[in-house]
Amino acid sequence: ITTQVAIMGAGPAGLMLSHLLAKAGIESTVIEVRSHEEIARTVRAGILEHGTVNLLVDSGVSDRVLTHGDRHDGIELRFNGESHRIDFKDLVGESVWLYPQTDVFTDLAARRMDDGGDVRYSVTDTSVHDLEGKPKVWFTDADGVEYEIQADFLVGADGSRSHCRFQIPEASRKWYFHEYPFAWFGILAEAPRSSDELIYANSANGFALISQRTETVQRMYFQCDPKENVAEWDDDRIWAEFRGRVNGNGFELKEGPVIEKMVLPFRSFVHTPMRHGNLFLAGDAAHTVPPTGAKGLNLAIHDVKVLFEGLDSHYNSGSDRLLESYSDRALERVWKAQQFSYWMTTMLHTPADADDFSRARQLGELNSVVSSRHGMAYLAEAYTGWPGRG
Ligand code: DHB
Fold it and tell me: Integer distance in angstroms from the first to the last C-alpha of the chain?
């Protein structure tokens, strides 16, 4: 197979890039080790920044996000038993959309299929070669046929366990890591909405997040030990945990059968630079953020937008200036999102060994945000997505 851009990974980043390239007359082949069904079944976060929504709609992926997604003009921060609304529309004039990542994937995959895009799921035996020259990718397709892709560029959009990332020599990269002493216990429950907006709750018993999916299915999380075993949590124990973190002062969660439960990993990671030779990394392959604030998918889509501008300008304007600056331009937003996700995480979670000082200081921090228009505006601007490309 000879193509212009080979893309490893058919998650939202890989498919979005392939879609944008196709619209600009640039060929790509996408390969993915998981099956279409497996990706579509994986429950992920649900908040899209306005910039992500605009890219999906304006590039013609789908307007289902506008018809089936829910626009959210604010969130609630809940601490000391009181809720405080952060009004995004009023503070920064923007909103976010609640539209699950699995739906973003389904829309992108359908669009690529309708447009005749070359996307191959369930491939095996992948390996990448000649990253510093003309990259090659070897793989075996779902029918057992072996292929070699020859491309001008290779894009590693192959997720947090990226195969591509590991092909970059140690001397040519730097890794930044931060571990946290907690994880998230995530559930899907059959229950009506408890609130129209998301509730980010801090309590002496730990953090909880009340999100939504549909009229009848809700998504919620609570801070847990990274080694927590979901098998030890029946519905009664789960709801008791939520009650102890969010109920009070007239607010009561609407409960129902738990239909899915999982522990979500929690760490901050950045690989720099995001380019090596003719390999470009995008999305989780280059960085992960803790889930607080739902920046993962939004960052991946931003990477791809910046990378697309570079590739478009290489092929269609004969200039490599934007491609050369891809890593720096993408990383600028990556580090802003790392800071925001770290800040939301540490402000809202309670370490198991928190002493009286750190608990009281944390409430001081939360109060300094909700009592100040400037404090709330920082949160609103970061949550809805910084303007421009930086
Ligand atoms: C969801 C996940 C998040 O990490 C977040 O910050 C907000 C919402 C969600 O799954 O709905």
Answer: 36
